[in-house]
Amino acid sequence: MNHTEESRAKMSAAWVKRKETFVPPMKGKKMSDEARAKMSAAAKARPSNRLGKKHSEETRARIAEVTKERTARGENHYAYIDGRKARNQDVRRSTEYTAWRVAVFTRDNFTCQDCGDKRGGNLQAHHLKPFADFPELQLDVDNGLTLCEDCHEKRHLKQELVAKCRRKKHAPPQA
Fold first, then answer.
1. Which residues does the UniProt record annotate as the domain HNH nuclease (predicted)?
2. How many domains does the chain have?
3. pLDDT digits (tens, 9 = 90+) for 67-80
């Protein structure tokens, strides 16, 4: 069945409106403990038909091959930049970078500057201004901060959230 351009436009507008206003019927509702127990029992009553079976080596090889083809890696990835990994590895493996890390740790007395943790193998040097965006500051001790793994991860997550909010705030209005 062929639709006219006018009817297609109307259907498209209706679909957009439905997507904006649609709320899943179970959203915000909690299952009772009894209902959850029944669902659990029902799921356990029918075990998977693959339970206890293993794929043959041939099948596993085929699955691995297909997965590699479908996975966007290296040059096939949309954000691939030729040579970036090599440049970053060269800098991070250099003696100058190692000296920068030691200088940052020494200045901060081998202590996490957020929580005060002093465990040696847990400490990381953090760039205050991003490593990729400010190559001239990569080895500047004033651009470094000693953080433990947890605080380092939290700081990066916070930076990502701030950047995401800024992108939303400055994004052009959608029609």
1. 99-153
2. 1
3. 988 888 888 888 88
